[in-house]
């Protein structure tokens, strides 16, 4: 074909040019090699020797089965989990007889703290507060829960049923039914502290009739007690007989820090009217007050609150007496809603991831 000769000539020329270029490169490389510093040859030689040594060590090193290593790690983790589970189970399976003394001691400690500072149970030993509180010799008296906190913030008020320590001016003869044996007496005191035994009769329960600064006397033409000249409203009074009347006593002005107290069973109660000969000797120091009777907790048939009707207060209309209950009902839902909102906000804040 025409043109084939030219193509062959062209290829020959290209091959010739390529051969010449290769020769030039070889010549240049040899020249560069001849002129390279001796230090480079030494470094390359050392690197080659180090590489050969490393390969030899790798060939002679013992081989380790990766599957065995992985299995050992898993087994170790499993063993650790088993130990933790067994320890937790052993802790949960602590014998009950080991935990029982701890539970008893803790219960007694909490009971002691509660009765010493918050509330205490007292046994009513006599009928002087009938029928508000029931008690008599040889019968099962009411167990009354007494609030010890309320008088941290205020003094006793008229109408409060209070438990107090018998003042020094009151009669103390023949009261304490404690055993002459010191050990038995100690257990009796301990039982009284926990509400399991009758308290010492040094503790008395009565109703507050007048407080410091007031003058109390009895009686008006309707046989009512007067405070500052005003007759008292006393629906809680108990009379064993319909024609029973209260005994008269002269006016007594109560000094600050003292209380004039009386039993609801007026014809069968030794109280401020007669104790210590009456007058100021029959008054009770506010500091002697242990607490306020709140509720009858035993026996179950007597479960109820202890009323604190203020005999000096004027009667209010029924709708006014219901105001506190109405306010409580009306405020219940908003209070619950607000509590949920606050709890939701706190929960969201706790789950929010810090940036």
TrEMBL record:
<keyword id="KW-1133">Transmembrane helix</keyword>
<keyword id="KW-0378">Hydrolase</keyword>
<feature type="active site">
    <location>
        <position position="206"/>
    </location>
</feature>
<dbReference type="InterPro" id="IPR036286">
    <property type="entry name" value="LexA/Signal_pep-like_sf"/>
</dbReference>
<protein>
    <recommendedName>
        <fullName>Signal peptidase I</fullName>
        <ecNumber>3.4.21.89</ecNumber>
    </recommendedName>
</protein>
<dbReference type="GO" id="GO:0006465">
    <property type="term" value="P:signal peptide processing"/>
</dbReference>
<dbReference type="GO" id="GO:0004252">
    <property type="term" value="F:serine-type endopeptidase activity"/>
</dbReference>
<dbReference type="GO" id="GO:0005886">
    <property type="term" value="C:plasma membrane"/>
</dbReference>
<dbReference type="InterPro" id="IPR000223">
    <property type="entry name" value="Pept_S26A_signal_pept_1"/>
</dbReference>
<dbReference type="GO" id="GO:0009003">
    <property type="term" value="F:signal peptidase activity"/>
</dbReference>
<comment type="similarity">
    <text>Belongs to the peptidase S26 family.</text>
</comment>
<dbReference type="Pfam" id="PF10502">
    <property type="entry name" value="Peptidase_S26"/>
</dbReference>
<feature type="active site">
    <location>
        <position position="128"/>
    </location>
</feature>
<feature type="transmembrane region" description="Helical">
    <location>
        <begin position="96"/>
        <end position="118"/>
    </location>
</feature>
<dbReference type="InterPro" id="IPR019533">
    <property type="entry name" value="Peptidase_S26"/>
</dbReference>
<keyword id="KW-0812">Transmembrane</keyword>
<keyword id="KW-0645">Protease</keyword>
<feature type="region of interest" description="Disordered">
    <location>
        <begin position="1"/>
        <end position="42"/>
    </location>
</feature>
<keyword id="KW-0472">Membrane</keyword>
<feature type="compositionally biased region" description="Basic and acidic residues">
    <location>
        <begin position="1"/>
        <end position="18"/>
    </location>
</feature>
<feature type="domain" description="Peptidase S26">
    <location>
        <begin position="101"/>
        <end position="297"/>
    </location>
</feature>
<dbReference type="InterPro" id="IPR019758">
    <property type="entry name" value="Pept_S26A_signal_pept_1_CS"/>
</dbReference>
């Amino acid at each position: 074909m025409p043109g084939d000769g030219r193509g062959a000539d062209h290829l020959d020329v290209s091959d010739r040019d390529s051969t010449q270029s290769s020769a030039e490169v070889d010549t240049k490389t040899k020249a560069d090699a001849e002129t390279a510093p001796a230090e480079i040859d030494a470094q390359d030689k050392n690197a080659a020797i180090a590489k050969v040594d490393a390969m030899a060590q790798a060939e002679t090193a013992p081989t380790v089965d990766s599957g065995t290593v992985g299995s050992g790690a898993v087994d170790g983790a499993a063993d650790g989990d088993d130990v933790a589970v067994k320890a937790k189970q052993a802790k949960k399976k602590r014998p009950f007889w080991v935990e029982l003394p701890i539970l008893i001691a803790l219960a007694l400690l909490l009971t002691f703290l509660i009765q010493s500072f918050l509330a205490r149970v007292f046994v009513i030993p006599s009928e002087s507060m009938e029928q508000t509180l029931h008690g008599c010799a040889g019968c099962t008296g009411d167990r009354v829960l007494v609030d010890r906190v309320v008088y941290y913030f205020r003094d006793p008020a008229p109408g409060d049923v209070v438990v107090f320590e018998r003042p020094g001016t009151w009669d103390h003869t023949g009261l304490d039914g404690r055993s002459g044996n010191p050990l038995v007496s100690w257990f009796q005191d301990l039982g009284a502290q926990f509400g399991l035994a009758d308290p010492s009769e040094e503790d008395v329960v009565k109703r507050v009739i007048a407080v410091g600064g007031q003058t109390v006397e009895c009686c008006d033409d309707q046989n009512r007690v007067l405070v500052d000249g005003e007759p008292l409203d006393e629906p809680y009074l108990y009379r064993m007989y319909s024609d029973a009347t209260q005994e008269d006593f002269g006016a007594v002005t109560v000094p600050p820090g003292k209380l004039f107290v009386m039993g609801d069973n007026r014809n069968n109660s030794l109280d401020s009217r007669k104790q210590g000969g009456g007058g100021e000797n029959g008054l009770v120091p506010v500091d002697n007050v242990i607490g306020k009777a709140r509720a009858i907790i035993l026996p179950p048939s007597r479960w109820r609150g202890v009323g604190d009707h203020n005999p000096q207060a004027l009667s209010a209309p029924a709708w006014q007496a219901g105001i506190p209950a109405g306010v409580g009902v009306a405020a219940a839902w908003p209070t619950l809603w607000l509590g949920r909102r606050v709890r939701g906000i706190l929960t969201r804040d706790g789950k929010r991831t810090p940036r």
